[in-house]
Structures are given as structure tokens and as C-alpha cells.
Design brief:
The chain has about 280 residues and is of the alpha/beta class. The chain folds into two domains: about 100 residues, 3-Layer(aba) Sandwich (Rossmann fold); about 150 residues, Rossmann fold. It is about 45% helix and about 15% strand. Strands 2-1-3-4 form a four-stranded parallel beta sheet, with helices on both faces. It has a four-stranded parallel beta sheet with strand order 6-5-7-8, sandwiched between helices. The longest helix has 21 residues. It is elongated and about 85 Å long. The N and C termini lie far apart (about 60 Å).
């Protein structure tokens, strides 16, 4: 009976998930017909025993080893153990780290998985921004239950700018305008009160802001939207809703978006340490 010839094996060891080293191996293997080798990825290598087990197995299979390990002591073990067994090894990351150290004249951080963590933060930020756009201005009350933070207040209390600022901090934010003629959605009362932030503002300042808004739109500045009577009615209604929800209330009068956002972040981090 004819024995089936086994493909040569390349082990990919990494202290993270191993995508970088595997990508390099596949890119090189494509130059030799990728089907000629079998790739075995070994992720989250954090101790010497795992390395020794892999090297023992690789020695029996006459395999090759590639690795992306940031800790010098782990790289040293691979180099010594592989040399003793006459195995071919390739350090994918080490030479580049050494070159960067010489070039920048500083020591590396030596923290496994940094790239993956940075990528995760980036995608969380993008997802949060998309969430803020989707659930801006009460477009879909179902978003209130999915949000990390819900901002409520009358028109022109910086709800949208605050939502986008907090989204860049990787928080999913929904915002809801409070209008006397429109009953607040029942979903608002299902949200935990510590996730809801009420926004209020000085009536005179709101009057000025709304007048400028009407002028920018080419509308009459004396419209009901900017009248003091209407503003007081809206603020009173909004405060009533906020008290019913039991949420903290921030006065945004004469405050920059960053200042209010940082206060909100303090509350979120106290209530949700993982945020």
C-alpha cells in the first residue's frame, strides 16, 4: 500500500492571536504554491512549557517554526531549543523591534497583543459613531435600550454634538428630544436611570441660540420656537420627565461640549467601570 506523503508543516507561534505571522507565512508560501505546506497556528503563547511542547512536536514532524513574540525570554527559548533540534525558525517580529529600538533610541513596551487591542478600540469607536448617527434625535426609541448613555433634553441643548463626542470615546449614545406635544417613549422609562443624562439650559441663553438658529435658516426670529413663553414651557416639561426618570441633570449653559462630556464620562465610569 502506497504511503501518503504528508505536507511540510509550518508552526506559527504568537503571544496574541497570530494573524500577523500567519499572514506573512501565507504570503511567502504563495510564492512556492501555497498548497505545498500546512500551517498550524498556536496563539496566546505565554509560557516556556507551551513553547517546549510545540518544539518537541515540530521536531518529530520535521516542521518549521515562525513566531511573533515580544518577550525576549520567550524568543530566546525558541532559538535555543530549535537550534538544539536543528529546526528552521524565523523570528518575524524580533529583528524589526530591534531595528526600531536602535532607530528611535528607546525600549519597546513589550506588551503582547497591543495591535489587536488598538484594532478593537478603533472598531468600537466606529461602531459607536454609527450607533450615534442611527439613534440621533429620537429616530428609533429601540436604541435607548441598547445605549451606554441616553441624552435627553429640549432642542438646542447640545444633544447631538455630545453624542458624537462621546461616540469618539467608544460609548454608544442615543439622544431624545423632549417636546410637550410628543409623549416620551415608554422605552425611556425602561432604561436604568444611571444611564440617562438630562440636559437643561438657561432660558435666556436658549432664547438667543434659537433666534440665531432661525436666522441661519432664513426664518423669522420671533417664531414661537424661540419665544420665551415656549422655551419656559419646554424646559418645565423636560424637567418633569427627568424627575420621573430619576436621572442626573446637567446644566449646559455657557459650557463647552468637552466640559459637559467629561462630566458625563465621569458618571459613566463610576457606574460602569468597564466603559
Amino acid at each position: 500500500m502506497q504511503q501518503i506523503k504528508r505536507k511540510p508543516i509550518v508552526y506559527v507561534l504568537s503571544d496574541s492571536i497570530g494573524e500577523t505571522a500567519e499572514f506573512v507565512v501565507k504570503a511567502v508560501a504563495s510564492q512556492f504554491n501555497s498548497g505545498h505546506v500546512e500551517i498550524k497556528r498556536v496563539p496566546f503563547v505565554t509560557d516556556v512549557e507551551i513553547i517546549r511542547d510545540v518544539i518537541e512536536e515540530a521536531s518529530q514532524l520535521k516542521a518549521m517554526i515562525t513566531y511573533t513574540l515580544v518577550l525576549p525570554e520567550l524568543r530566546k527559548v525558541i532559538q535555543e531549543e530549535s537550534k538544539r533540534r536543528n529546526l528552521i525558525t524565523v523570528d518575524v517580529m524580533g529583528p524589526m523591534m530591534d531595528a526600531f529600538g536602535d532607530f528611535l533610541n528607546i525600549d519597546p513596551r513589550l506588551e503582547p497583543g497591543l495591535v489587536r487591542r488598538l484594532d478593537e478600540q478603533y472598531f468600537r469607536r466606529v461602531a459607536a459613531i454609527e450607533f450615534a448617527v442611527k439613534y440621533d434625535d429620537g429616530k428609533d426609541p429601540r436604541g435607548l435600550l441598547q445605549a451606554d448613555v441616553v441624552l435627553v433634553g429640549v432642542s438646542r441643548t447640545s444633544k447631538t454634538p455630545l453624542s458624537m463626542y462621546l461616540a469618539h470615546k467608544r460609548l454608544k449614545v442615543a439622544n431624545l428630544p423632549l417636546v410637550p406635544e410628543v409623549e416620551a417613549p415608554e422605552e425611556l422609562y425602561w432604561v436604568q436611570p444611571n444611564k440617562v443624562i438630562g440636559l437643561t439650559i438657561n432660558p435666556r441663553q436658549l432664547n438667543e441660540i434659537r433666534q440665531e438658529r432661525l436666522k441661519a435658516l432664513g426664518l423669522h426670529a420671533q417664531a414661537n420656537y424661540a419665544s420665551m413663553e415656549r422655551i419656559l414651557e419646554e424646559l418645565e416639561y423636560a424637567e418633569k420627565i427627568m424627575r420621573k426618570v430619576g436621572c442626573p441633570i446637567f446644566d449646559v449653559s455657557n459650557k463647552a461640549v468637552e466640559e459637559v462630556a467629561n462630566k458625563i464620562l465621569q458618571i459613566v465610569r463610576e457606574e460602569q467601570p468597564d466603559a
